[in-house]
Amino acid sequence: MTTKKPLLVVQNVKTYYPIKTGFMNLKTDYVKAVDGVSFDIFEGETVGLVGESGCGKSTLGRTIIGLEPITDGHIYFDGQQMDYRTDRVSLSKQIQIVFQDPYSSLNPRQTIGDVLAEPLRVHRIVAARDIPQEVERLLQLVGLPTTAKSRYPHEFSGGQRQRVGIARALALRPRLLICDEPVSALDVSIQAQIMNLFKQLQQELGLTYLFIAHGLGAVKYISDRIAVMYAGKIVEMGTTEDIFLRPQHAYTKTLLRAYPNPDPTKRSIIQRTQKGALE
Ligand SMILES: Nc1ncnc2c1ncn2[C@@H]1O[C@H](COP(=O)(O)OP(=O)(O)OP(=O)(O)O)[C@@H](O)[C@H]1O
Ligand SMILES: [Mg+2]
């Protein structure tokens, strides 16, 4: 259930990357990766953010978490305007990010237990003597055996590694999780399991999600609302039902046509849903 209190408010946010161009690289141009984006996310809600490669989805996510400097605009979290220079510590506890490939961000020489213990220790989430118990709790939360703590990242499959990535993000007990294509690198059969885990964690922990993906199919079942991004701007945002049944923008309609339906029985369901009720 969502309450009508926005947890995150993004107001006219711009993130530009300076690039040197022209003769002798003397001219500075800008890649307008995020170019005037406004939207909000209510507590307990899942907002899907979709759009083609390079449209600025990751930059927007990284800007919200403070990994990219904001060029213009304002971001409010739980009613407070974010100042990323001073709020980094408190912010990093409240907003966490899950990346597409957790392997590249896991130190191969650290055991899973150490990976999870580190943020607990640095941010003093629990007393030092309670860390081993908290590590086990996190592993159980994401469906991994507690014996995983003494093993290394390479000993795990892609799906299991993503579970570790999720456990690490949850270690700081965040309220908002930015999920940047967290299942797109996984085997199709594993994708559904991880998506179910996200849903289950949301119910158990009351999490709020910004869920990034290329296509509409990937966010359909998890999103309450969907924002469609194109060339640095959100061109349309609406409930999942509205986006699927009553798309307004031409680009949203293009994305809907690209909605993959290899199964002919499902295809007919989609055709029906576009005419009538959402499945
Ligand atoms: N550090 C950077 N310096 C310069 N330009 C960048 C930087 N990071 C991203 N960009 C540019 O900003 C634009 C948006 O990139 P971004 O990674 O946010 O897109 P995306 O929607 O996440 O794409 P994908 O779906 O492929 O992950 C692209 O044109 C990209 O080349
Ligand atoms: Mg991206």
TrEMBL record:
CDD domains in alphabetical order: ABC_NikE_OppD_transporters
GO MF term (any one): ATP binding
Keywords on record: ATP-binding, Nucleotide-binding, Transport
Residue stretches making up the ABC transporter domain: 8-256
Family (UniProt): Belongs to the ABC transporter superfamily.
A GO biological-process term: peptide transport
Pfam families: ABC_tran (PF00005), oligo_HPY (PF08352)
Protein name per UniProt: Peptide ABC transporter substrate-binding protein
PANTHER family registered for this protein in UniProt: D,D-DIPEPTIDE TRANSPORT ATP-BINDING PROTEIN DDPF-RELATED (PTHR43776:SF7), TRANSPORT ATP-BINDING PROTEIN (PTHR43776)
Organism: Caryophanon tenue
Keyword Isomerase among UniProt keywords: no
Matches recorded under Gene3D superfamilies: P-loop containing nucleotide triphosphate hydrolases
Record keyword Magnesium present: no
Taxonomy of the source species: Bacteria, Bacillati, Bacillota, Bacilli, Bacillales
